[in-house]
Design brief:
alpha+beta; 8 helices; 32% helix
Length: 346
């Protein structure tokens, strides 16, 4: 069996094991063998992405036909055609409804109030305005080219703390715990209140809720926890590289990955051979990281011992320092004749 075939089989088996562990608990009572886990050169796909705060979604409104009767609103764009318009001032093209609710047809024709009207009512109002400007029997065609729904729905939307995304005047939709296809259906179903068969495209542009953690231990002197966004193919080497490498107190022989497991599963701890990864290009322990993984880097034992001794002896040293300072001050007063004479004169 070729090396590539073995890698493909291992990747498929690993995907099955990970899916079972992440979805329904432990796949088997025994721990998963280390060699069967995804790692550099034998990576697998991440589980289906579940939307959570504070992810950033990109929404595009592909189709949104308003339900009849539609009443024109500000920021809508109307398509207006009048063949009988003056040659030097044609009326043919898109006209935007300004904040006052009117459209400006041109210098000879002026503005027409259309906000709140249906398309038929807007056509009649425009025709009446043109007749008043001395046009003979103008035929007016009015269509809705673009609604402000596109401007309100399109763009990037941050998933709020309560798991909803805002759609402007069209309310908000809960997407917490949904995959992309499920969230797309939820948003389209919500927009059905306002449009006929709405269709959107949905994507994630900010994977902000899926992280792994690099934890540097400083030998009882505290820990530094660094949150790293998950890109999907990160390995242990990538994760530590994101933090500018190991600190000076780190013991390269004491690095491991702690992987969260369901409640009824034993903890999964994956030892990392850092020297083999960096100096020999050995990929066996350069594991692929998943959401929630903790990469633990311990400090040298001597550093930990030194910190413990410092905590024990530091209060004692301070106590004796105060005692010695007090006794030296008393002795200096007794032995300095100038201080003694000044005391007697007083």
């Amino acid at each position: 069996m070729s090396r590539i075939t073995r890698m493909r089989l291992s990747s498929r088996a690993t995907a099955v094991v990970l899916a079972a562990v992440l979805a329904n608990g432990c796949a088997t009572p025994a721990p998963v063998p280390t060699m069967d886990l995804p790692r550099e050169l034998v990576k697998t796909g991440q589980p289906a992405y579940v939307i959570e705060p504070p992810d950033l979604l990109e929404i595009d409104l592909l189709a949104a036909i308003p339900k009849a009767p539609y009443h024109i609103r500000t920021l809508d764009v109307l398509g207006i055609v009048v063949p009988e318009a003056l040659p030097n001032y044609p009326i043919a093209g898109p006209f935007s409804v300004d904040p006052s609710g009117s459209i400006f047809l041109g210098v000879p024709y002026g503005s027409v109030k259309v906000a709140g009207k249906t398309l038929e009512e807007a056509r009649d109002a425009i025709q009446k305005q043109l007749v008043a400007k001395k046009l003979n029997n103008p035929v007016v065609t009015v269509s809705l080219d673009q609604t402000r729904a596109g401007q309100l729905v399109r763009g990037q939307h941050l998933v709020r703390g309560d798991g909803t995304v805002g759609l402007g005047a069209y309310g908000s939709v809960s997407v917490l715990g949904l995959t992309l296809p499920q969230a797309k259906l939820a948003i389209e179903k919500h927009l059905q209140q306002y449009f006929q068969a709405p269709e959107i495209s949905l994507d994630i542009v900010g994977y902000n809720s899926k992280l792994y953690y690099i934890i540097y231990d400083y030998g009882t002197a505290g820990q530094q926890i660094i949150r790293v966004p998950l890109t999907g193919s990160d390995t242990v080497l990538d994760g530590i590289g994101q933090t500018q490498g190991l600190p000076t107190v780190a013991d390269a022989r004491k690095i491991w990955v702690a992987r969260p497991q369901p409640e009824d599963c034993p903890p999964q701890v994956l030892p990392v051979d850092w020297k083999a990864i960096t100096e020999m290009g050995d990929t066996r322990t350069n594991y692929q990281l998943f959401a929630g993984d903790r990469v633990i880097v311990k400090a040298y034992s001597l550093v930990e011992c030194d910190n413990k001794l410092a905590r024990i002896f530091s209060p004692i040293e301070r106590f004796f320092g105060v005692v010695l300072l007090g006794s030296s001050t008393v002795n200096s007063i007794r032995t300095d004749p100038n201080l003694v004479n000044a005391t007697v004169v007083r």
